[in-house]
Write a structure and sequence with these properties.
Ferredoxins are iron-sulfur proteins that transfer electrons in a wide variety of metabolic reactions. This protein has 377 residues and is α/β, with parallel strands linked by helices. It is 28% helix and 22% strand. It folds into 2 domains: 279 residues, LarA, N-terminal domain (Rossmann fold, 3-Layer(aba) Sandwich), CATH 3.40.50.11440; 83 residues, Alpha-Beta Plaits (2-Layer Sandwich), CATH 3.30.70. It is built from 12 helices and 14 strands.
Length: 377
Amino acid sequence: MEQIGLTGCKSYDYEEIRRAVDFLWDTLSFSRLVKPGMTAVIKPNLVMKSGPEGGVATHPLLVAAVGTKLKELGADVIVAESPGGPYTPTALRIIYGGCGYLEMSEKYGIPLNYDCSYSDAEAPDGVRSHHFQIINPILNADLIVDVAKLKTHCMTGFSGAVKNMFGTIPGLMKPELHCRFPEKPDFCEMVIDLCELVRPQISFVDGVIGMEGNGPTGGTPRFVGALLAGTNPYALDLACTKIISMKQSDALLTAPAARRGIGPESMDEVEVLGDKLEDYRIPDFRQPESRTSDFVLDYVPKFLRPAAKKILTPIPKIRESDCVGCGRCAQSCPQHTIQIVKHVAKINYQDCIRCYCCHEMCPERAIDIKRFSLFKL
């Protein structure tokens, strides 16, 4: 039976975070995984520049608390991330600064990575992908500590410990994987292949403030008041989906992991240490609008279902009044279906694969997820 830890954390006050981290660390005996002199890489979720309490990025003070704990045990600690967009020292500095990590690094002595090299890595046991390009700080780590954010996700349903490993792919190579795996099930199997390749030994999920609705960047911050941890990221994510009342059919990374035998099928296979999971459950946590109502397809002839599914799958829609023509959506689009015309983004829906990368990377939140009008009836 897998074990995870759960404890309350009601604010981002450093002392309260440190108390919660220490509790989870001791409860789950994480110290046994840390050896003096080892290189410990902390992998937060810094998908884009966003303030510490906006629900988008892992809070810097949680990373500070985890990093300080690792340093106390003699590890050499560094924070590494590859956000969407160019993977360069300049781009990293902008992201670090915008997410509050430059200040955190200076105050708590937690180094930030600026090595933008990467290498080929083979995944011989992969189901969908047998080859990845991974940032070198991750490949060179003795210990990977996954410090994720609790969020909904328009592509995978939920973003937590498992999806956070997608940030080990160099920034502009992420769209290539979206293009190779445009269907959600295939994409999620690929993410699991990646997570198994760069498997974190310790995982935390920042659930003090999560994100509901159209995450991982375009949703709404939602107070949850919890911090979770474990050694199995799939068990951790399953527990998180229960907290946000997500149907398992919508959490697209947990069921495939269970079928592979690397994650639990239900919470009956997970022992929760610390607080009770039910005490944190939020029944009205808003889910992504990108979900396809597949029940409609049951009434469509089989030969028409592929075309019908494309029509019924929600689309990204530009709010032209809020678009500033920055081009981040076009840069992130794996199909190159977006053009900037007269300082406004335009989407060619004929080639759009509904990966929602544009929605995820828009710094102005000027892209909505729109359902086919049938669902408004």
